[in-house]
Design brief:
The chain has five helices and no strands. By secondary structure, the protein is mainly α.
Amino acid sequence: MENTIKSLEKKLEENHLLTCLAEECGEVMEAMFLEPDNREKIEYELNDIIGVAHLLHDKDIVCANLDNPRIPLPSSSNKDIYTCVKEIQYFTHKSIRFGLLNFKQNSSKRNIDELSRLIQNLVALVYTSKKYNQYENFDAKKEKILKFMKKQSKQ
């Protein structure tokens, strides 16, 4: 019984973090569409995605190299970042609905593999961007999410 409860708690935590990731992606896409010249807002929301990605990594839900982007990318544009964020949101929704281990149709990659790759690509895009900065500290975002999760688990 105790193992079942722990398993359910882990699944709820995973789904909550994936939902946060999808929500942050939506906020980036909305800001890029409605306020394309508001660099600060877009940058803030992009870094929120990376903050949630750090939590997913810390909780061993998604494995991604977030601190040292290894993918050398040419100067990126909004379209590249937008497309990457859109794909992260797509695979996040698929992961919530079908599970992280579910395979993409006609592919050998699981949702978790796609998410890991896309998150790393986004970090590299932001890291190499001439327009947006990547923050070094994501503690505030992580604490906010963890505080909410703790509050929810007490209810």
